Amino acid sequence: MKISDIVKILNAKILYANDELLNREVNSACASDMMSDVLAYVKDQAVLITGLCNPQIVRTAEMMDMVCIVLVRGKIPDSATLELAKERNIAMLASPSRMFAACGILYEAGLKPEG
Amino acid sequence: MPDAIHMEFDVAGNNFVSAGAATNHVKDTLRNLGIPNKDVRRIAIAMYEAEINMVIHACGGKAYVDIYADKVEVLLEDKGKGIENIELAMQPGWSTANDDIRDLGFGAGMGLPNIKKYTDEFKIESEVGKGTKVYLKVNFS
Question: Hey, is B137 helix, strand or coil?
Answer without folding.
Answer: strand
